[in-house]
Amino acid sequence: xxxxxxxxxxxxxHVARAHGVETMFTLSGAHVFPMYDGAVKAEPQMRxxxxxxxxxxxxxxxxxxxxxRVPGLAVLTxxxxxxxxxxxxxxxxxxxxxxxxVGGRAPxxxxxxxxxxxxxxxxxxxxxxxxxxxxxxxxxxxxxVDEAFTLARSSHRGPVFVDVPMDEFFNSxxxxxxxxxxxxxxxxGDAIATIAGLLARAQRPVLxxxxxxxxxxxxxxxxxxxxxxxxxxLTNGMGRGVIPGGHRSLVTKARGAALSGADLVVxxxxxxxxxxxxxxxxxxxxxxxxxxxxxxxxADSPGQVSGHAELAASVAGDLTTVLDGLQSAIEGGDKPxxxxxxxxxxxxxxxxxxxxxxxxxxxADPIHPARIYGELVxxxxxxxxxxxxxxxxxxxxxxxxEPKRPGGWLDPGPYGCLGAGLGxxxxxxxxxxxxxxxxxxxxxxxxxxxMDVDTLVRHDLPVVMVMGNNSAWGLEKGPMQMLxxxxxxxxxxxxxxxxxxxxxxxxxxxxxxxxxxxxxxLDRAYASGVPYLVNVITxxxxxxxxxxxxx
Length: 551
Prior knowledge:
single chain; 19 strands; globular
């Protein structure tokens, strides 16, 4: 704890710095000028990263929270500045991303008279955030901002919003900085023992590792658990990479067989939502015995444990403690033998890889989207950060891209929000300055935020953007045809040269129509040292094969 004095912007910046914040994402607005002054006067200065649309600032803060596990900071001016950031705040709430949004607010001494952008913002944001409140006086700013950061980084993590009236933002006061830490929850030992017993008796278990394994700093414990016990494992969200791509226990390519044939599914750090069949695995039409698998749900906090699925057991709390406790309990008894089950799934993985090879090397004209990944995946470095922003095109990435390290995959999560990609790319380039950063863009998703290539250029943030351009909203076009026999409002302009847009903004790029030219184009992009778009024209008929539409 330390005493600090200054105007409200200086106080807020001091507190943010104490919590580990190094960058403020923003778009200039007079209501939040004191935050900029606080950043400039800080020792050392806090980096100011200004964007072309507030959504990008908020998405960058959300991605920073994911990548660094320190809350990202977005500062948004009053009224439309704040409301432009709401989709990113909602995404953070769904994905459990730690972030703090500081909003401007019309002056309190003018409230009710119709001053510029006068809007009571917290009630609008409260439904999609952990908390949303107005800090009414300068004297409350230090404690209020510290509380926001502490809450954002405490289990279960998420976004917190505060705004400060403009007149109070310019006022001075004193306050204290906090510890810069969050709080965690101690799991119940008896619940851990119950789950260990279920695992010890299981013959065909499957482990699923999700985003909160990474967010809760439990990646090392998870890898130990998998390697020492040999349990077949699937990953999703930022759980991807916790078990390195190619690992013998990673059975993502045999996902269907694993979840259909399992007798016990242990889900760690991710909700039992539409991505996981709402927690129902197996059953009469899938499992050879006709039975549903027993399900265990492990979460970082009680509020994240499923309330709709039928659970055999559950536990909530610090995920490292849970995983280490499970491993210790299992190894303290008769260690289960899952070798035959694991071998069966590995055979399925090999067969799937052989089938995939045909699409990954396809010479089809127009280009099959999978061919892009056939060229991209061998070029991805172990420290790569891969960002997905799109529908159908990015679905292929989930199938073919298996990160080698944790913390290297970003997708919108269960909220499914398009337009997050440029903000995430900005965040990734800052958070991982020496890493390879690749943004996978659908041509539809690009329309939400491509203007922020200007931000990449102005701030010297080279990123490789790979676009699957099928001139359509592919995720909607196929299902609408299936339902109605036709589609409307699903087509975009044919073969738009989005790379020319990137060039006009100061970057570089090229259009690719020949599958043999994808690889050389990617090599040029990675060697360029500038924001570079590889705009690959793909076949709109080559849709990702789906078993669910997310409802």
